Amino acid sequence: MDLQILLENFGHPPVMFFFLGLLAIYVKSDLEIPSQIGKFLSLYLLFAIGIKGGQELFHSGFTDQVLIVILVCVLGSFTIPFLIYSILRWKLNAYDAGAVAATYGSISAVTFATASSFLNAQNVSFGGYMVAGMALMESPAIIAGLILISKYGKKKEVDQSDPRAGGLVLL
Q1: 4-9, long-range: CB within 8 Å, 24+ apart, which pairs?
Q2: What is the DSSP string of 11-55?
Q3: Tens digit of pLDDT for each residue in 101-136?
Q4: How many CB atoms lie within 10 A of CB 131?
Q5: Fewer beta carbons under 10 A from the terminal one: N or C of the chain?
Q6: What end-to-end distance do the CA atoms of the chain give, in Å?
Q7: What are the angstrom distances between the C-alpha of 161 and each of 10, 84, 92, 157, 167?
Q8: In the 8-state DSSP scheme, what is residue 128?
Q9: d(CA 32, CA 80)
Q10: Helix crossing, 64-88 with 138-152: angle to 10°?
């Protein structure tokens, strides 16, 4: 692997912000992004990914291959949380397992952007419709996580006889 490519990847803003976050935790900084900015950035990213995915899908055309790739993306992002949830429930409660499972079913836009940049640097061509597949993978994973949490995250997990759980102890 070329060292120059590796160093270029560390220079991308998302990667640098990741390391800034690690540094902030390490030095126990009280660095905090205001919630309004976090909400704005989330909405901006959703719109930007959706618009970019739509543009790339328009340019590449809607063929049978594109349809198959998009269906695999959507089905994969919906089914992966169910598989991951069954594994995570061995160690986590229903809420945490559902949230983590939804994250695994989703896709990381930063990872996708880094992989795309790497492929472009290596002159490896790939279909622009993959951006549309990425954009469509967010919602099914979140919906699957919410289904899992609503189905299995009932109050039955709280032991009412345990005073640490906030339940009443009858003597």
Answers
A1: 5/118, 5/121, 8/121, 9/114, 9/117, 9/118
A2: TSHHHHHHHHHHHHHHTT------HHHHHHHHHHHHHHHHHHHHH
A3: 998 888 777 778 778 888 888 898 888 788 888 888
A4: 24
A5: C
A6: 68
A7: 52, 30, 20, 12, 6
A8: T
A9: 32
A10: 30
